[in-house]
Batch of 4 targets.
Target 1
Amino acid sequence: MKRFLIKLSLIIVPFILLLFVLNFAYLNSYYWLEQRDEAKFRNVPENIQLANLGSSHGFYTFIYNDFPEYVTFNFGMKAQHHVFNYYVLKQYLNNFSQNSVVLIPISYFDVTRIMKEYHRRYYTFLDKENLPGWKKTEYILYNYFPLFTVGKAYKRLLIMNKKEIAPDFLSRTREDFVSHSEFLFNWWTAKDSEEKGEEGFQYNIEAVSKIIDLCYEHKIIPVLVTTPQADVLNDLYAQIDFFDTFYRFTDTLKEKYPGLVYLDYSQKPEYSSDYSLFLDATHLNKKGAKKFTAQIVQDLKDAGLLQ
């Protein structure tokens, strides 16, 4: 029996050590340190004057590099919706200066849908009280042994030290945008478990209202914004009278909060018909984002919201 245990330990101990070595390598990989959206939260500045929340429409759309005169931050993360926009803002309230501006993107897909939230990634930077369903085991795993939480981890290990090179999206044709618009439209309007109709409408009104209330309570100016969308995507939505519901959503919030500013760029022709500004049918590329951010800053100045 003793001999068997020794042989077993000679197998198990090296295996465990290998797992620890691989996990250490993963923790120090390019993917873990830089490719994840949440890596930026290690450097949230103090005295923020202008920031944005949002899902990918915030993450990709706002680039503040051309405005060093302001303290700015992009809190957007891919697939981050209203509920976690609230918790992220709540986490960093003390990083904002008084009368700062927070842009709250209102996107086509998060008006009547109740979206699944990928909460595990928030273990790396949100406090326990700001993370619904917080579990100690998940906290330990995601912060210290993240390799064990990744599906098909071997693929991450193979690419973990390689930068992903973005393709030349400026070479896309109109047909590419039509195809991607049809894909998005079919996905976002599918009668699946996330589409909740009026129930989803009220759920999202309440979620955005919590963000707005939090802003007002802490002397932060909330501004609703809808980012530019390609005209081919807008044409598909127009066919199902979607915009009646969409603008009922923003009108409901403006009625609830008199004085609330809503900036709608979703169908501005200078963006929607210029495909050289788009990454795909619903996201601006770097060129488009820099142009759009400049317009946002100017429009906020013109409205007297940004000094």
Note: The chain is about 45% helix and 10% strand.
Target 2
Amino acid sequence: MQYTLMHKNVPVVDMEVDETGFIAKLSKVHDERHLPVGVQIFSTGVDRKALNDWWLGRSIPASRVGLSQALLSMGVASSVLLIEKCFGLSLSDQYWVRPDEDITWESVNFFTNKFSTDVGEILFGRDPNDPARISLFSPDNTSDGWLRKKWIIAGSKRFLMKGGSGVFHQEPFNEVIASLLMTRLGVNHVDYTLTFDGEKPFSLCENFVTPTTELVPAYRVIESIKKSNQDSYLTHLLRCCEHFGIANAQGSIDWMLTLDYIISNEDRHYNNFGFIRNAETLEWQGFAPIFDSGSSLWHNTARVGTVVDSKPFKGKHEEQIKLVNDLSWFDFGKLDRVAGEIVNILSQSPDIEEARAKAISQQIVSRAERVEHRKAKL
């Protein structure tokens, strides 16, 4: 299938996608400035391998809970093939593929147009209302992550609804707790609330990307410049930020690593933090609000307080917290009485006993105290 990769209404490059969903051929380059971040153009043309890496990264990962059965229900062989069903559109950025010049971003984008809820319902393990008339035109086709999730429209706003896993289904509660901590500490973040579908808990957050902005994951940023063997991963990321003119990257990373230490986050990989860019002017607006903190607080183990691995710069939190340069903003006093609020949040879960809720709360306070002690030594 022949497409033009578009950035809103800016043609970027003509491309051919084969029957497996891979970009098989690139031809005319219309505007190299609007290529996805991290995709280079050489004397021989656009780096097709890098563009495929970006393109395939838009698909639902194979690790998504219930994906195999969902694909069978939708009659689609792979999640990669779902990308074309919605023109590659997303609620995280403004890229898409145009098969016909008569189609405009204004007529198809998910920010201002309605979309099908069929894919989201199927991904949640539910049968569609009319199996014979399933619509695959949905931003759920290009959503990342392994937990069940779906986009919904409430009024004129778009919200992401995301579930939990394992015995405790704790991730939605963790998102709310992380929001509470960051609100108290004055850290820029995405606000999460709790909702229930029957007895199953879900987190709910409003989309922080607008029709004129986009989220550029840190992974795309670090792919933009070759890493020196002498640089650590953090140093390399900061060099890339300097290259793009992204201000206050270190300060925002300090916030993120401090939060992740307090909640013992196990999954802060390079695709669940990033930067905001204006999709029209290509100007960088800074670090994205912190989001996706659910894989924390010993969500998948009965032993609260056990040592867990960290990401993305060091394998252990006790090492990673040492990368924080400035803690002058951190005020332990702002977390006064937060322990009781955490217990109250967790008490809404039918799967979490009071003893576990109290243990989690105590661990958060204890780890925050350690941050305060570190602050005194800096």
Note: The mean pLDDT is 96.
Target 3
Amino acid sequence: MGVVKVLEPNSLPLSVLDQSFVRAGDGAQVALAETLQIAGLCEALGYRRFWVSEHHDTTILAGSSPEVLLAAIGAATRTIRIGSGGIMLPHYSPYKVAENFSLLANLYPGRVDLGVGRAPGADMDTAIALATDGRPKFERFPELVEQLGHYLWAGNTKPRVSPAPPRDLPIWMLGSSPDSAALAADTGLPYNVALFINPQADPGMIALYRQRFQSSALWPEPHAMITVTALCADTEERALALKKAADVNYITFVTRGPHIDYIDPEQAREYEFNPQELAFLARYEHSRAIGTQEQVRAKIEALARYHDANEVMLVSNSYHLADRIRSFQLVAEAFGLEKPTVN
């Protein structure tokens, strides 16, 4: 392992989205234990936020209940902000979501982010199963967001949220389309663009968000974040091996569905992409940060400038835990992240 080159500190805040990746043969218990380990590592390295996602009916991601997982992450950390990336609000009662996150925010004051999204997080059969009346409420998403904000911020609501929510508990709008940008702006919420999901999202989305933004009590100014895939390694050769494994696994997921076993970089080495697969993967090239420290830092900074983002959140679903740990270490060192001070 080579000597790490520490670059000059940068003011761009970096955060992490973890998806509790399940390796074949290990199971969910190992994946969730690794999520807790990565959360502690990211806190020690100086990342600003650690969010977890919501996915259902899959064998490859263990995070089906962000609010439950966040309770464990909060107990395992002390300073880093923790949050949902995100709660799929059309499945649920805004009142119950408000209670869940009010409880989390009372357990971990000043540290909780409530990210919400419209996507199902699964196929439509699962979305129907999640809905208490069998009818997912995707078309009511703006109304559900308004209700959630009312329960968290209006005070003395009927019924009251119990325990009472701290007034500084933020809702984040997650999305990958102009509709989500407009909704975030009109409701005065911070906005996270999921570039790792929709690589075709262009700077016009955040530009629209900034132009339409209506000031709110918690956010007098617009605040935008992008979430990107980042795979950083000591050598370019290793980074490209991680990239190929990620590409093979994503192709497999897209073509065969969520009930698959991912393969590791060693197994992926012999895979040969066909022309259609290469064309599909090419859409993602410009929105990912993959390579050595210098290459990854340059790409992250370029993406932040291109999209006019205040923050960048990283997804690093490498097969091996050691590769994920090393990636987060190298990026933190490349950006000169400041480690937290605990009183």
Note: Residues 14-335 form a domain with the TIM Barrel fold (CATH 3.20.20.30).
Target 4
Amino acid sequence: MSIDHHGHAHEFEPQFGLPERLPSDERVIWQGSPDVATLARSAFHLRKLMLYFGLLLVARAYLETIAGASALQVLLALKWLAPVTVLGLLTVWTLAWLTARTTVYTLTNKRVVMRLGVVLTVSFNLPLSKIAAADLRALGGDHGDITLALKGEDRIAWVHLWPSVRPWRISKPEPTLRAVPGASALAADLRAAWTAVNGSCVALAPADKANSRTMAPTRLHQASAL
């Protein structure tokens, strides 16, 4: 079974999160969406943006202060920068919220299905037989990213997957279940389903930040958050 995708509007899905109804011999093991706050922090870098804009505001206020400006003059100097800061952060949060709302990840006993897209919805079918390795990255609060490395030459364009893709893997993108709740339990379910399909055991390695970018074949590797 090859990896394929289908343009699909989720309002008309025959089965939630799926482009078509599952066959009688296939069942849903897990289904979920990214956690908004975790996705905003990890994929959209909201905290870093908050720090960046905060530093801009402080720097502008400091320059006005050392120039001898009064408190009122400092506030007037920030009257344009402050609204832009709020608007920018709200835009990023809204994008994260829309992404989480329209994204659905599904694990069945045969495949992983990723329904993605805020405007144009597509679904990617990733057969468990085509998955070479998985990497669990803990994000705190039992949320995490689960990255899937595909076998052979199978690949999906990085831009089609974003943000459900491993950062900086452009030449051979790795689909990623981003900011999922109950990530450790999902990792165990994925390991069991993968083993049932491929007929060999997948070991869950202990967290190891130094090897967080290394994925051994047929191994579910847990990496600590960066």
Note: The two ends are 35 Å apart (CA to CA).
